[in-house]
TrEMBL record, chain A:
One of its GO terms (molecular function) is molybdenum ion binding. It comes from Halomonas beimenensis. Its cofactor is Mo-bis(molybdopterin guanine dinucleotide); [4Fe-4S] cluster. Residues 60-116 form the 4Fe-4S Mo/W bis-MGD-type domain. It is found in: Cell envelope. SMART domains: Molybdop_Fe4S4. The lineage of its organism: Bacteria, Pseudomonadati, Pseudomonadota, Gammaproteobacteria, Oceanospirillales. CDD domains: MopB_CT_Formate-Dh-Na-like. Gene3D superfamilies: 2.40.40.20, 3.40.50.740, ADC-like domains, Dimethylsulfoxide Reductase, domain 2. Keywords: 4Fe-4S, Iron, Iron-sulfur, Metal-binding, Molybdenum, Oxidoreductase, Signal. One of its GO terms (biological process) is anaerobic respiration. Its main location: other. This is Formate dehydrogenase-O, major subunit. Belongs to the prokaryotic molybdopterin-containing oxidoreductase family.
TrEMBL record, chain B:
It is a multi-pass membrane protein. This is Formate dehydrogenase-O, gamma subunit. SUPFAM superfamilies: Transmembrane di-heme cytochromes. Residues 134-312 form the Cytochrome b561 bacterial/Ni-hydrogenase domain. One of its GO terms (biological process) is formate oxidation. Keywords: Cell membrane, Electron transport, Heme, Iron, Membrane, Metal-binding, Signal, Transmembrane, Transmembrane helix, Transport.
TrEMBL record, chain C:
PANTHER family: PROTEIN NRFC, PROTEIN NRFC HOMOLOG. NCBIfam families: FDH3_beta. Residues 4-32, 45-77, 78-107 form the 4Fe-4S ferredoxin-type domain. It comes from Halomonas beimenensis. Pfam families: Fer4_11 (PF13247). Residues 179-204 are annotated as: Disordered. One of its GO terms (molecular function) is metal ion binding. This is Formate dehydrogenase-O, iron-sulfur subunit.
Length: 951, 354, 204
């Protein structure tokens, strides 16, 4: 896991300097603060500012904030003295983490002292970074955007947003893109859990973690597949280990690597990368064979399980062993453990999602849980651990190319809904877009290019792209390009762009890997500790963050930058029609209130800023096991009002701690499966059969609520006159008064109806999930039986290849399976975390994990440098870490490194003093083509490579 | 008599030191008795790291590092348990320290007794006033360089080993910190210099110190203490030769082990340095004890010897008595030109310490 | 008088290194020195176990015994502190320490190691002022009635700090909950009979 055996370790002093010191110094020196002295290896540099934050007697202000490094949502007490972040205390009263932190959370305070930040706007002129004023930067960038929009249409500019935004900023950037006239906007959820959201939402309604971390304490079996919380979500382990200790819960880890989580498990199953569906079918084979499925549950709440049965029949033990490498006895044992220990939950992460078959994987996981009757019960669930701190919120708020906020989609109805919420003229909005029609339809109603494919949006033949032109300008607004596959092609795409704008607290890899000498702008955004707003944790709880410190250096909060750009581009008035702007900074609370008015589908309507702040101030009142407040101002609420928090804030819905939990009243957080897919299919009812939430006045399945349905039920009169006026002709999703939801809940019904979860997603390429071999598979013998899909002419505006790639047999040259994953010390592309000395010190070398047997075959010794060459020719020079953690045919690389490119050190391309402490090759330089057939998720977990000793 | 009394006074300080040291050692031993068995490192670890199985525990305790041992410290080469640390501590505190104290104080005691019983060895015959050149300037310079370095290193070394017990109570906090920092710095920087000088001295004096048959006789007669008359001795007698070869063997070991300790920048393992430290201390303490004898014999123990190393010339009577073979050799060589006579006595201020 | 100790519940330690950076956060120790470290045995193999270690504040501390200058000393509550003014950088504490706790900022020729640094149990060290204490030793949380930050922030509550008796009690309760006297867990193949944990709970 870690390379520790380096003989000579360069030392870099220093913790950076405090804000005060910075201010003091910046008066004297305008240049880089941390002039670097070159130290030993090219990986490491020493900062010269090595002082400690001085001790101070000044009064301490304590701020409540939330860690920004993953979606667990750990609370933090930040102590601030005279504007300097001088202390960090554990929040023992926080209901999710009880003061606990992993390496990243425990070093949070260093965000307030980072010297490696991007300090002021900069632009690249003839290969040199030049400092700009904010005014000049906005002026130049804005003019270029206007020019490009004029020449090539609004779709030529790509607004790549971020899961590091808070909810308000994520919502605002989506609205920004809409008003700029394009759907070419996206964020990291696309390359994180997009297949989860698509697969899970299409199975039972919502694509999010069904239960909570805290509720895992009630599980009796927990299966991790493609998830390594010990490194990716360490604080979640607190709850998982409690389940293990108190319930003797079975911890089962299914992974190609023997992960740190596997080390804590009762049962570890090693499977071949990319064989998840076959593995799940193998489990279900035993479950069906032994009658371990929950028949009543399936009959009442599940549609299409019989279709699954017939698919599973084709996966008897010997077939499963052939595909996955897991022997029959292990499969049966695993199935038995799951069957005998209920309620149990399944947890998956990128190991399941980042595949061309990602949507199949996620649906297969759901089907397994449905068969076991584990969904909608405490201790059960599909516990999807999200990645970034606000990837859940940014997804919900629609910072995606295929939907408006709240998963409304891009249909005319969706646009009209949001036009009403925004109080904008629909026709004006239409006029912002390119009116022409392309292969995918009109750009306004066609999904934009995804973050995973912007490279192809730049490089693809113009006529093959379903929009007017190729992409001409990219905004990387809080994005790590090294977390995306196909590095060498990305570099080509960057060279071809007319303008690159990086908006980020750090320069990021995007600032250095492009090989350009002009047309790159860097705008310093501040971190989430320098602004305020709400953030949605993985369990759907919204948490409010205080502003800890003022923005460092010349950085600005993202929403302020959005305002400045919108003003320059000429739509600030529309964008901020109902949002107060103080100075140049839009009022965060107004943005919250605005999305509260429109987010009916997912119940982001009850979480008013006032309620969220009340929760924030009363962490101690929430129960550690149930998340429910016991007394206090938020009495009865679930922490963070986990969505759906129905109706308006005035309705006082407590939030939904466990999705689809029929044992509770809807008004108290209970729920049914959503009636999202119609009422019947082929004559079979899709509505629930004899299952309903507690206290429901409708004691059977029912469709989603509409004005007409209220009238049929005779409940129309329950609406106030005002509500009736607003609700006329509307449904639970579009009634801006919230009346329809209020009345449905008053009768203890779920506004979205009561249906069955479906195993058969007839709208997807594989209605029943199928095992399909990866595009780059080492098992050529399986390609005939389990081929991938045919190439698709246009998907998210771009041709997408499947069969034509799989057909080429490259196993002769590239025999080794390459997979990737996380390290606990770093996050995402790692620019931020590698710029924090406390963390960087812990992982100083990019490496590749190689099994001892493979290492012997290759003649590589531990600690030696090797070239890992991906199947498309991208090469990375990394250190070999020989470990039994990986199987003989698989190698693993962490993806957090950057700043080295195919052996070349990019250190000197960073603006002076802003290079991270640790640089390394990006794993994704070596990864290859492959995109999910539903969401364009990139394939990072299964490709092929070869390894040779580096000289 | 009055001379003898005056000569005795310098023994007061060592005697005082001896008393202090014994008292302190006694206290230390008592302190250790009180805590021993209360908590060993093993027990500390057992308390600090419960819930590991027997195999892991065995691995922890043995201090072994296998291929799959990782440490969050990037440059660490240490296992969880420094298995030899406690052993080193025990050797150092229970054996090396007392050994050194016993050796040095024992030697002082022996010298004292010897002095009181035997007294100063006087010249059998009166001085002739004729001087023989025994130590040319270069030899003297080398000798005194090595001697002063030896003494400085010895004193600083003793400070590092016993200073805390002996002198810490004497000095205040501030002075103590400065004193010890100076001590360690001197010791570490002079050490390599001593190494160089020692090698030069050993090379220079080698020809005088090759063993001869008559050395055995000399030894059998205890350098003249046993039996009648003085045994034969050349330029160097057997005692001096033994001192030479001790320096050439133990001295070099001390030097090498010292260098191992002094240059940790070569990433030598902690275990290596533990061994080096024990060897260094034992060797140095032993040499120090022997050196005391050397100093005694070279100063007050023998009349007429010190002037050879201060002025370079010795009296004919002394040479005849102690190094008869050398005397004869020199006489033979200088028959034509009788031994030079000194023009004047060297001023006493120029006399080097020791 | 309480006796302050650390205890790392190896069955809970997941090697997240939170304790390492928490220590950096509290004490701002320079790059290269980790007062607390996490070691992993049998990394990547079944049986992998991680343990967080720092100075154990031993009852009979070997470092104190071998220090030539009295840099190291023990408070009444068992915390072993160091006085940087007295440290001469000889490295003896490092030779003697069973746990590799003392570290030096340098490792240069002529034994130039700089001043020794080690875990203070977040109890600072001797200094004339708060400013000086923080600059030399880092936080003095004990003085503020708090425990070391590493233990307070441990992601899985594996690392415990406090009075030996109390933390032994906490651990004993866990062992009982886990249903094994030896601290092993249900179905865990590693939970072979071993009296260690039992000993640990008896002690104190």
């Amino acid at each position: 896991m870690r390379l520790t055996r380096s003989s000579s370790t360069p030392r870099a002093g220093g913790l950076g300097i405090s804000r005060r010191q910075f201010l003091k110094r910046s008066g004297a020196t305008t240049g880089g603060l941390a002039a670097a002295g070159f130290m030993g290896t090219p990986m490491m540099r020493r900062v010269d500012a090595a002082e400690k934050t001085p001790y101070s007697d000044a009064p301490i202000e304590t701020k409540r904030t939330v860690c920004s490094h993953c979606s667990v949502g750990c609370g933090v007490y930040a102590e601030v003295q005279e504007g300097v972040w001088t202390g960090q205390e554990p929040a023992f009263d926080h209901p999710i983490n009880r003061g606990a932190h992993c390496a990243k959370g425990a070093s949070l305070r260093q965000h307030g002292h980072s010297t490696r930040r991007l300090k002021y706007p900069m632009k690249l002129v003839d290969g040199e970074w030049q400092r700009l004023s904010w005014d000049q930067a906005i002026e130049e960038i804005g003019n270029r955007v206007l020019e490009l929009t004029e020449q090539h249409g609004p779709d030529s500019v790509y607004w790549l947003g971020s899961a590091k935004f808070n909810n308000e900023q994520a919502y605002l950037l989506r609205k920004f893109a809409a008003l700029a006239g394009t759907n070419n906007t996206d964020h990291q959820a696309r390359i994180c859990h997009s297949t989860t959201v698509a697969g899970v939402a299409n199975t039972w309604g919502y694509g999010a973690m069904t239960n909570s971390l805290n509720d895992i304490q009630h599980s009796r079996a927990i299966m991790f597949i493609g998830s390594n919380p010990c490194e990716a979500h360490p604080v979640a382990l607190q709850h998982i280990l409690l389940a293990k200790e108190r319930n003797q819960a079975e911890i089962i880890v299914v992974d190609p690597r023997f992960t740190r989580t596997a080390a804590k498990a009762d049962h570890y199953v090693r499977l071949r990368p990319g064989s998840d569906v076959a593995f799940i079918w193998g489990l279900l084979w035993h479950i069906f064979e032994n009658g371990w499925e929950d028949r009543d549950y399936i009959a009442q709440r599940v549609y299409g399980m019989d279709d699954v049965r017939s698919e599973v029949a084709a996966f008897p033990p010997e077939v499963v062993e052939n595909i996955t490498g897991v022997p029959e006895a292990t499969m049966r044992d695993t199935a038995r453990r799951l069957a005998e220990n209920r309620p149990g939950c399944i947890v998956w992460c990128m190991g399941g999602t980042q595949h061309t078959t990602g949507n199949n994987n996620t649906r297969a996981y759901c089907i397994l849980e449905l068969a076991l009757g584990n969904i909608g019960v405490s201790g059960g669930g599909a516990n999807i651990f999200r990645g970034h701190d606000n990837v859940q919120g940014a997804t919900d708020l629609g910072l995606m190319s295929h939907s408006l906020p709240g998963y409304y989609g891009l249909s005319e109805g969706a646009w009209r809904h949001w036009a009403r919420v925004w109080d904008l003229d629909y026709d004006w909005l239409v006029g912002r877009f390119d009116p022409a029609e392309y292969a995918d339809g009109k750009p306004m109603n066609a999904s934009g290019i995804t973050v995973s494919r912007w490279v192809d949006g730049v490089l693809e033949e113009e006529e093959a792209i379903a929009q007017r032109t190729r992409l001409k300008a990219m905004f990387y607004w809080g994005h790590a390009v090294n977390s995306q596959t196909r590095g060498p092609e990305m570099r080509r795409a960057m060279q071809q762009l007319e303008m690159m704008v990086v908006v980020d607290p750090y320069p990021t890899v995007a600032a250095v890997m492009h090989d350009r000498s002009d047309g790159v702008y860097l705008l310093p955004a501040c971190t989430q500790f320098e602004t305020t707003g709400s953030v949605t944790a993985t369990n759907r709880s919204l948490q409010w963050r205080d502003r800890v410190i003022e923005p460092l250096f010349e950085s600005k909060p993202d929403h302020e930058i959005m305002y400045l750009l919108a003003r320059k581009l000429g739509f600030a008035e529309q964008l901020f029609k109902h949002i107060r702007v103080e100075g140049n900074e839009p009022l965060i609370e107004d943005i919250t209130r605005e999305f509260n008015r429109g987010m009916w589908t997912v119940g982001y309507t009850g979480q008013s800023p006032e309620r969220l702040k009340a929760h924030q101030q009363n962490w101690h009142t929430f129960n550690f096991e149930t998340l429910q407040a016991q007394g206090g101002p938020a009495d009865g609420d679930y922490y963070g009002l986990p969505w759906p928090c129905w109706g308006t804030a005035e309705l006082g819905h407590p939030g939904t701690p466990i999705l689809y939990d029929t044992s509770k009243k809807v008004s108290e957080g209970g729920l049914t499966f959503r009636a999202r897919f119609g009422i019947e299919r082929d004559g079979v009812s899709l509505l629930a059969d004899g299952s309903f939430s507690r206290g429901s006045e409708l004691d059977d399945g029912y469709p989603e609520f509409t004005a007409a349905m209220l009238k049929d039920l005779g409940w129309w009169g329950d609406l106030t006159a005002q509500e009736q006026q607003a609700a006329e002709g509307q449904n639970w999703k579009t009634d801006l008064s919230g009346g329809i939801q209020r009345v449905a809940i008053a009768h203890e019904c779920a506004p979205f109806g009561n249906a069955k979860a479906r195993c058969n997603v007839w709208t997807f390429p594989d209605p029943i999930p199928k095992h399909r071999e990866p595009l780059y598979t080492s098992r050529r013998d399986l390609v005939n039986d389990y081929p991938t899909w045919d190439d698709v002419a246009s998907h998210y505006r771009l041709p997408t290849l499947y069969r034509s790639i799989q057909q080429k047999d490259v196993t002769g040259t590239y025999p080794i399976i390459l997979t990737s994953g996380r390290l606990v010390e770093y996050e995402g592309g790692g620019e931020e975390t590698r710029s924090m000395s406390w963390l960087a010190e812990l992982q100083q070398q990019m490496f590749v994990e190689i099994n001892p047997a493979l290492a012997n075959d290759l003649g590589v010794a531990d600690g030696e440098m090797v070239w890992v060459e991906g199947a498309e020719g991208g090469r990375v020079r990394v250190q070999a870490l020989v470990t039994p953690r990986v199987a003989r045919e698989v190698v693993f690389m962490p993806f957090h490194f950057g700043g080295m490119f195919q052996g070349e050190n990019l250190h000197d391309r960073y603006p002076e003093g802003s290079a991270p402490y640790v640089l390394g090759e990006a794993a994704n330089t070596a990864t290859t083509y492959g995109y999910d057939s539903v969401t364009q998720m990139q394939e990072t977990k299964c490709t092929l490579c070869r390894i040779e000793k580096a000289g | 008599m009055s001379i003898a009394m005056r000569d005795l006074r310098w023994l007061v300080l060592p005697a005082l030191l001896l008393t202090l040291l014994l008292v302190t050692l006694g206290q230390q031993a008592r302190a250790q008795d009180a805590t021993t068995g209360e908590a060993t490192p093993g027990q500390e670890a057992a308390f600090a790291v419960p819930a590991v199985d027997a195999d892991t525990w065995r691995q922890i305790r043995s201090g072994e590092i296998d291929a799959n041992f990782r440490d969050s410290r990037a440059d660490s080469t240490y296992n969880l348990i420094n298995a030899s640390g406690e052993g080193w501590r025990q050797i150092r505190d229970r054996w090396v320290s007392p050994f050194g104290a016993i050796a040095i104080l024992g030697m002082l005691g022996v010298i004292l007794v010897f002095y009181l019983v035997v007294g100063r060895q006087r010249l059998d015959e009166p001085r002739t006033g004729r001087k023989l050149l025994r130590w040319p300037v270069l030899d003297r310079a080398l000798h005194w360089s090595v001697a002063s370095l030896f003494i400085l290193l010895g004193l600083t070394g003793l400070m590092l080993l016993y200073g805390k017990a002996l002198l810490r109570p004497v000095f205040g906090d501030g002075a103590w910190a400065g004193l010890m920092t100076g001590t360690k710095t001197l010791h570490n920087y002079l050490g390599p210099l001593f190494a160089i000088m020692l090698l030069l001295v050993l090379a220079r004096f080698l020809r005088h110190n090759l063993p001869r048959r008559h050395d055995l006789t000399w030894l059998r007669q205890g350098g003249g203490m046993v039996g009648k008359g003085h045994p034969d001795a050349g330029f160097a007698n057997a005692g001096e030769k033994i001192w030479y070869w001790l320096l050439a063997s133990v001295g070099l070991v001390v030097v090498i082990s010292g260098l191992v300790l002094d240059f940790p920048n070569f990433n030598q393992a902690r275990d290596t340095m533990q061994w080096a430290n024990v060897i260094h201390a034992l060797g140095a303490l032993g040499l120090t004890a022997v050196a005391l004898g050397h100093i005694y014999i070279g100063t007050i123990g023998t009349e007429g010897v010190l002037e050879g190393m201060t002025h370079g010339y010795v009296d004919e009577s002394w040479a005849k008595q102690h190094h008869n073979l050398w005397y004869e050799e020199v006489r033979g060589r200088t028959d034509e030109a009788p031994p030079e006579e000194t023009k004047h006595d060297a001023p006493s201020a120029s006399r080097p310490p020791g | 008088m309480a006796t302050m100790k650390f205890m790392c519940d190896a069955e809970r330690c997941i090697e997240c290194n939170g304790c390492v950076t928490a220590c950096k956060n509290a004490n701002e120790v320079e790059w290269g020195i980790q007062r607390r470290r996490v070691v992993t045995l049998d990394d990547g193999e079944p049986g992998e176990v991680s343990i967080s270690v720092a100075c154990m504040h031993c009852d009979d501390a070997p470092c104190i015994a071998v220090c030539p200058t009295e840099t190291l000393y023990q408070r009444d509550d068992g915390i072993v502190l160091h006085d940087k003014d007295l440290c001469i950088g000889c490295g003896y504490c490092l030779y003697a320490c069973p746990f590799g706790a003392p570290q030096f900022p340098q490792q240069s020729a002529f034994g130039e190691r700089g001043k020794m640094d080690k875990c203070t149990f977040c109890a600072g060290g001797p200094a004339d002022s708060k400013e000086e204490e923080y600059a030399k030793y880092g936080a003095n949380r004990i003085d503020e009635g708090k425990l070391p930050l590493c233990a307070e922030m441990c992601s899985t509550k594996a690392l415990l700090a406090g009075d030996a008796q109390e933390i032994a009690d906490i651990f004993r309760q866990r062992v009982v909950r886990r249903g094994h006297e030896d601290g092993g867990w249900s179905g865990n193949p590693r939970a072979a009979a071993d009296s260690l944990a039992h000993d640990a709970t008896r002690r104190g």
